[in-house]
Amino acid sequence: MKHSSIFYSITFIFILSTTSIFLAFLWLINYDKENYTKELNNKYSTVSDTALYRFAKLVSQDEYENQMKNYNMVKISDDKNIAAIEQNGTILQEVSVKLGTSAIILYNRHHFLKIKHDDEEILLQDADYQPYRYHIIKVIFLFVFTILLITYIFIIRKIKPLRKIKRQIDKFANGDLNIENAKTGNDEISEVADAFYTAVMQIKKLNESRQLFLRNIMHELKTPITKGRITAEMIPEDKYQKRLISVFEKLEELINEFAAVEEATSGKKLNIVDVYLISELIDEAINLAMIDKKNIKIYGDKELELKVNFKLFSIAIKNIIDNGIKYSTDKFVEIYIKENSLEFHTKGENLEQDLSFYIEPFSKGSNAKQSFGLGLYIVDNIIKSHNLKFCHRYEDGKNIFYFDELKNIISNSENIDLSIIDEVQKSDNK
Predict the structure, then answer these.
(1) pLDDT tens for each residue of 407-427
(2) The domain made up of 274-429 is a member of CATH 3.30.230.10
(3) Of 384, 380, 390, whose CA–CA distance to 308 is shortest?
(4) Numbered ranges of CATH 1.10.287.130 in the chain
(5) Residues 348/329, Cβ–Cβ less than 8 Å
(6) Per-residue pLDDT at 240 exceeds 80
(7) Are 383 and 309 in contact (CB under 8 A)?
């Protein structure tokens, strides 16, 4: 899965939010603890000052008792307890002033205030004091974290069908129409999944109807072609008989070619793929085009092995050669076998439109020489089915149609004669 996916984004937001809340709570605890400590220090400071004023006889006993009522400080009178607290307690803070000293002592999870003036000494216990407790803030943090976690799980569960939808889309993109309905509920995502499934099922039905229609047409055409050929073989043997038989053979080849093209344009993966010499493919293409080999010149490594569907790839080459012979000014095609491309060079005027215009079925230019019918459309589909790119450029008065990224189907790339290819490229650039 890509790190830019919505799942990663949501997870990142969840982690970021949780971390931010955790840091905020840490700050809150520290801030609250500081305030709590400050309040205690103010309390003990006031009590200490009041007691020292009483020892110094700056205030009366009544005034002292009235002020001490507000602070719930209990005097420790037992000498044993006083000795245990002073010996075993931890002094947290000690302050000295002109009137005397005061010290905050922590003993057995209680706070004690020791006040001393000359020879007078008093030990007070803070009856209100409780050690700082974190549990309230912890409970709040756990509550917020639980809410976030539940929200995260809920969102992930809601968008989880997107993964299944993507898998089904990938299957569909690869030509597999046997997909599953990723619908899991009644929300918007489920509606999208259901709509996608419905659309694919409609496409599947249309594709099946199309295939059935084409198969019926091909079947119906084969019967009269076969009968016509049989009839032609029964007439007296002469040049007309040979022509008729040749015509019917050509028609039969066209029907077979049409079936192969239908396979290429169906969007399905190629099933019958094997390794062939590129020279074999070109020879088959020349035979299908029924042209003289004198009109073709080949440059490059003819022993190059390609992993292709023999019939379909030959048809693609045949259509390019056929168009080259038909529309070139000199009725001549040069074929260059290069390191990563198979190029077809023909002399003539540049195309009026981009190649994308002409690979559409029955595309037409401003004149007959710019009209390619189904030829380039078929080529484009066959080339795409082999994971190649069908491209065009115009150089030095020549139209150059080529199959790019040839390395995707080269079987013996380690054995390619690169010197031959380099020489071809150098001569082509001159």
Answers:
(1) 989 885 544 443 433 443 444
(2) no
(3) 384
(4) 174-269
(5) yes
(6) no
(7) no
Return all residues near 98 (Cβ < 8 A) that are at least 6 apart: none
Rounded to the nearest 5°, which phi and psi values hold at 287?
A: -65, -40
> Which residue(s) pair with 322 in the sheet?
none
Strand pairing class (333-337; 296-300) = parallel
Q: Which two tokens stand for residue 426?
A: 């150098």
Pick the residue with more confidence: 104 or 255? 104
Which residues belong to CATH 3.30.565.10 in the chain? 274-429
Dig out the tokens for 266 from the structure. Answer: 């169906």
| Closest C-alpha among 101, 96, 95, 98 to residue 120 | 101
Strands 90-97 and 100-107, sheet pairing: antiparallel
Domain 174-269 fold is Helix Hairpins (1.10.287)
Instruction: Give me the pLDDT at residue 255, please.
Output: 75
